[in-house]
Amino acid sequence: MFVKLILIVISYFLGNFATSLIISKLWANMDIRKHGSGNAGATNMYRILGAKAATLTLIGDALKGVFAVWIGRRFGGEYTALLCGMAVIIGHNWPILLGFKGGKGIATAIGVVLTVNYFIALICILLGILVLIKTKYVSLASMVGVITLPVLLLFNEGMIHFLFGLMLMAMALFRHRGNIDRLLKGNESKIK
Questions:
Q1: From first to last of its 192 residues, what are the pLDDT tens digits of the chain?
Q2: In angstroms, rounded to a whole number, what is the distance separating the alpha carbons of residues 31 and 10?
């Protein structure tokens, strides 16, 4: 039990590793959280620093999720892997080392879900891409992907994975509540 708790704590602090802050500092000697939307994620990086910086951010944030699930599975089993996956996203969204000001967790969730069940992850990513192409709303694309996740997990993995998917969905929707409000009001920013 102690080992599993340590793995979850490690995963949380792994989530505190802010890819966007490191890249924005190296790329332009700036803190990305003080520009654009103020979010420490790939979309804000894209809008402020361009596609290359955003891609590096996306990859770095996803790799955090991959590694957290991997260490959880390797040293604690499947259920520990799911808890480590949730912990790394919580650490990304609410990093104690950065004053609890993090990202929205989508890229990290992609890495987590790819490691839990890559086929389901690919379906969610594909749905998100289709929504993004059609609407140009990154937030809507992210939410469609994450809303689909628990349903797919329920029918392909079972109840524990379904609850895990619900937790990921709840965190993502909570972090996107401002986007939801702007979407409903018709003033959400589109990606170019």
A1: 889 999 999 999 999 999 999 999 999 999 998 998 888 889 899 999 999 999 999 999 999 999 999 999 999 999 999 999 999 999 999 999 998 988 999 999 999 999 999 999 999 999 999 999 999 999 999 999 999 999 999 999 999 999 999 999 999 999 999 999 999 999 998 987
A2: 25
Alpha carbon separation from 118 to 26, 121, 152, 156 (Å, rounded): 32, 5, 12, 12
Tell me the CB-side half-sphere exposure of residue 175, using CA atoms within 13 A: 28
Integer-rounded Cα Rg, in Å, for the chain is 16
Q: Which two tokens stand for residue 7?
A: 């793995």
> Please, what's the b/e burial string for 121-147 (b: 16 or more CB within 10 A of its CB; e: otherwise)?
bebbbebbeebbeebebbbbbbbbbbe
pTM value is 0.94
Of the candidates 103, 91, 97, 85, the one whose C-alpha atom is nearest the C-alpha of residue 149 is: 85
Half-sphere exposure at residue 101, Cβ-oriented, CA atoms within 13 angstroms: 12
Q: How many residues does the chain have?
A: 192
